[in-house]
Amino acid sequence: MHWITEGLDEGPIIASVRKSIEPSMTAQDVQKNSNRESINLLQSNIMNLMNGEWTMVQQNGRASMHLKRDILPASTIEYDSQYSGDFILRLSRAVCNKNNGFVVKTEHGSYKVVVDSVLSIEEN
């Protein structure tokens, strides 16, 4: 939770929680967990905020920001190119939210592949 300033997500931190991201988690999983933790942080700090009793810590500059115009090129793959399994898994996890999907570019056009879920399976 941070103080709102002119810059996007640049304000000083009021409260935070650290969570690890499991390899099987998708962007949707991360967003749901973040939303839940945001509500928990607000509930835990609301009285202090209302009473003006909080401290702020400057952000350390490690946050990342992604512009909408950067997403399509970053999630487009070429039909005739080779990609590692790790790349495909990471791409699938990253776009598995709000029907984002990734694009496969072919000589006949571009096709959006929407990833509904990424599930871990047990191997025998």
Layout: helices, strands, pairs:
Layout: H1 27-50, H2 68-74, E1 76-78, H3 85-95, E2 102-106, E3 109-113
Parallel strand pairs: 1-2
Antiparallel strand pairs: 2-3
The helix/strand order is: HHEHEE
Helical segment tally?
3
> Mean of the pLDDT scores?
87
Count of domain modules: 2
Give the key terms.
124 residues; alpha+beta; three-stranded mixed sheet; elongated; 3 helices
Describe this structure in words.
The protein is built from 3 helices and 3 strands. It has 124 residues and is α+β, with helices and mostly antiparallel strands. It folds into 2 domains: 64 residues, no CATH class; 59 residues, no CATH class. The protein has a 3-stranded mixed sheet. The radius of gyration is 19 Å and the shape is elongated. The mean pLDDT is 87.
